[in-house]
Amino acid sequence: MSGFTWREGQLTCDGTPVAEIAGATGTPVYIYSAALVREALAALGAAFEGYPHAIHYALKANSTLAVLRLLRDLGTGADANSGGEIEAALRAGFDPARLHEIHGSIHHLQCLSPCGGAIWDAAGEDAEVDESTMRARRIPRCPTCGGVARPNVLMFGDLGWIPDRSAAQRARFAGFLEDVRDARLAVVELGAGTAIASIRMLSESLGARGAGVVRINPREEGIGPPHVGIAAGALEGLRAIDAALSAG
After folding, report:
1. Domain ranges of the chain
2. pTM (2 d.p.)
3. Spatial contact of 77 and 57, defined as CB atoms under 8 Å apart
4. pLDDT averaged over every residue in the chain
5. At what angle do helices 34-47 and 65-73 cross, to 10 degrees?
6. pLDDT tens digits, residue range 124-173?
């Protein structure tokens, strides 16, 4: 039996009593139905049947690893827009070749100078901080020149950032957009604000190419016609769209 149902006086999730789960894990505990996730994804895919499409799950909604791994196994991509979301996507096993980190990644390092174009994985470089001084006990070093290393993240007015890794991801994304150039695209933008407007500008550039854009934002939903702005949170806005589509 799938989903959340009452069975012999007990609330169950996918056939397992919720009390049994709580007893095994302790409380509080978040419980998700894998069956309902599968059903929702199948319904979303069916809505686009006959049209070229790709479904990417927004980690901003829920980055629980078990949920992410289930969605990965079901064939979705990942929509990750922060260092934490990218780390979760990689830990869940999403293909790194399908990620586009617009402003770089805190999980990769480069030389502060920089002395060259090297970018390397930051694995094993966990910063140990002296809490009495709030200073790092050890500073990562560039393996080439021995100088200080820094995260490969683009900061404001950052002339020392090495863009090669992000440029390669951008090229792959551009290739994807070229592959779907003749398709009817719909872009649903969730929660992208104006302070750092990279995602908003991307949506609008796709809109200028003929895609339809739906911008969902509780305070900054403005977008010109023929596109649609919805003043709501992400989940509220998606539910409103689902209700409108269901009503025909």
Report:
1. 1-31, 37-99, 100-166, 185-248
2. 0.60
3. yes
4. 89
5. 40
6. 887 788 999 999 888 999 999 999 999 999 988 899 999 999 898 889 88
| Res 100: pLDDT | 74
Specify the amino acid at residue 187. V
Distance CA 107, CA 84 (A): 10
- Listed in sequence order, the residues at least 6 apart from 162 whose beta carbon sits closer than 8 Å to its beta carbon are 110, 114, 117, 118, 119, 152
The β-bridge partners of 215 are 189, 229
Instruction: Judge contact between 23 and 57, C-beta under 8 A.
Output: no
Residue range 80-105, pLDDT digits in tens = 777 778 888 888 999 887 777 778 88
Would you say 29 and 21 are in contact if contact means Cβ atoms under 8 Å apart? yes
Cβ within 8 Å of residue 193, ≥6 positions away? 200, 217, 220
What is the Cα 193 distance to its own chain's centre?
15
Confidence label for 49 from pLDDT (cuts 50, 70 and 90): confident
Paired tokens of 25: 């894990």
Any residues with CB less than 8 A from the CB of 144 and at least 6 apart, and which? 111, 115, 116, 118
